[in-house]
Structures are given as C-alpha cells and as structure tokens.
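Sequence only, no structure available. Ideas?
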Amino acid sequence: MKADPKVQRRLLDLQAIDTALTQLAHRRRTLPERAELEALARELSALEDDRVRAQVAVDDLDRDIARLEKDIDQVRARKSKDETRLAAGTGPARELEALQHELVSLNRRQGDLEDAELELMEQRETAQSVLDGVEQRLAETREKREAAERRRDEALAGIAKEEEFKRGARQPLAADLPADLITLYDKVRENSGGLGAALLTGGRCGGCRLELSGADRARIAKAEADEVVRCEECRRIMVRTNESGL
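Reply:
I predicted one. Tokens follow.
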C-alpha cells in the first residue's frame, strides 16, 4: 500500500485521538465512584437487614409489654372489685377472709407483672437504641451514596464532554485520509488492542517496543518513502521519520 509520508504522519495524529478515546472509555469503566457505590450498596443492604431485625425486636417487645399491661389492668380491676366488696363488709366472714387472701395474691401478682413489665421496658429501651443507631447509620450511608452518585455523574459528564471534543476532531481528520489507509489502520487497531499505528524510532517499533532485526531494517530501508510498512512482530503500521534509525 502507498501513502504520502506526510499522510502517514497524520495517521499518528489520528492514533493519538483514538488512544485518548480509549483512555476515556477506560476511565468511564473504572471510575472509583463505581466501586464506591457498589460497596455502599452492599453496606446499605446489610444495614437494611440490621434495621429489619432491630425493628422486629422492638415490635416484639412492644407486643409483650402491651400484653403485660392488659394483664395488669385486669388484676387492678379485680383488686378494685374485691376492695369494694371488702370495704362494704357484707357477706359471710369466710367469704370476706377469702377476699383478703385473694387481695394479697392479687397484689403479689400485680407486683410480679409490673416487675416483668419494667424489665421488658428496659429491654425495649436498649432495643430502640440499637434501632436508632442502625437508622442513623442508614441515613449517613445514604448521604454518602448520594454524594458518590453526584461525583460519578460529574465525572461522567466531564468524560462525555472530552469524548465529544475528541470525536469532533477525529471526524475531519479521518475523512481527509485515504480510505484504504483508514481501512487498514482500523483493522490493525481492532486486532492490536487499539493501537494501529506507531512511530519507528531508533530501529524499534513503537507498537510492540521490539527492536527490528537486521533483515527487517534492510527491508524497510529499501522501501520507498510512500510505502506503508508494518512490523513483522505486531503487524502494526510503522510510521518512519528521520529518527527511525534506518
């Protein structure tokens, strides 16, 4: 393939733009905010599980306390009824004596229930503290996520702006180069990790960084200036200059 040496050197300008676009794409894929958001998502999921467990613990204690309060109210109602009957002093002595014994038993029962309720209320206070702590961590982690999302979006917007600028510069440059040269360049770039053309400097390919053999040097030295030469090792297009070491 033939191409004017100046045209071949312009191929390096195209390669520089394509390399920049590749780097921008890599930056988009590897934004630190992406990894941070993934970690925060896992943290939020774990905290949400903790919140559910803490809420269940509080709800269970509330239900147990409510049941005890109902039992205490029933005991108080029974006591009030017995105390009213006892205060009236009517009825057989045996029945009044039984009421007195029942009141003693009810007082003991009320005390036991109130002690149990107090213990549950202390447990609930601890459980509520745990729940409040989890909810606080959830709120803080959500704020971190929102901040990371803003940073990610800003970074993506910056990358998109740079890409737009680079593509705007690439289009007229590629359109001004020979179609067959662009076709070859694009094919080589696709098969060579994004690098289709490189400088030949000091007898070394700028693509694979390998030094040319004596036979390759002689072959390229004999080639016409407008001949498009390629590296025998990496098959990339090598652009020759006065510093090619030939």
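The chain has a mean pLDDT of 94.
Hope that gets you unstuck.
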